[in-house]
Design goal:
Layout (H helix, E strand, L loop, with lengths): L24 H16 L8 E5 L1 H17 L5 E5 L5 H7 L12 H11 L6 H4 L7 E6 L7 H14 L6 E6 L16 H9 L3
Parallel strand pairs: 1-2, 2-3, 3-4
Length: about 200
């Protein structure tokens, strides 16, 4: 998106793609903060945003919160694309688990097992602490993470933020067919993000 004055750096989290290691919530957060430090050392006074998609939205809010609480530094903004409130809510609402939800052991075997493995991705708790601008993007036809989770996260943030103007929720109508994975393909997205950040 160089023509839009954005530069994007993406990473393979540990255990994914070309990265070695084992996936863990704390490890993912450490990876993002390492990338942040690398970019910060080379970007001068340029704005740095955390942009998370799907599972990455929990990682983005974790990293932003850790940066703020442990270093006293705010990321310039957080953008959450197709987010959820926390991993437990996500697992309880994704379509693939629908058939299992009525079974008595569902909560223990599926939902509680993630907590036992240290997987929480509590964006709903993280946004209560953040002060940076927060943009939430969700498509109405998201078939993986229901838009109600994005809206619930927005309401949680809006209630917690002192400056309500820093929090924005944008929905994309079903007719656009963006689903869970294609919001970034929307040609209006760079302008929407720029407007949110008041970039000229």
């Amino acid at each position: 998106m160089g023509a839009a004055d954005f530069h994007i750096l993406a990473l393979d989290y540990r255990g994914y793609g070309d990265s070695t290691g084992r996936p863990s919530e704390s490890g993912f957060t450490t990876d993002v903060l390492a990338l942040y430090d690398w970019v910060k050392a080379r970007s001068g006074n340029s704005s740095i945003l955390f942009w998370g998609h799907s599972l990455g939205t929990g990682i983005a809010t974790n990293a932003a919160r850790k940066l703020q609480e442990e270093r006293g530094v705010q990321v310039d903004a957080v953008v959450l694309e197709s987010p959820y409130t926390n991993i437990r809510d996500a697992a309880a609402n994704i379509p693939i688990t629908k058939i299992y939800r009525r079974f008595p052991g569902f909560e223990y075997l599926i939902l509680d097992s993630m907590a036992r493995a240290g997987m929480f991705f509590s964006s709903d708790e993280n946004v209560k602490v953040l002060d940076c601008p927060l943009l939430i993007l969700h498509a109405e036809d998201d078939g993986v993470l229901p838009p109600k989770l994005g809206h619930k996260l927005y309401e949680t943030a809006l209630k917690a933020y002192k400056d309500k103007s820093k929090v924005k929720f944008i929905t994309f109508p079903q007719k656009l067919g963006l689903g869970h994975d294609y919001i970034s393909f929307n040609p209006e997205l760079p302008a929407l993000v720029r407007d949110f950040l008041n970039m000229k």
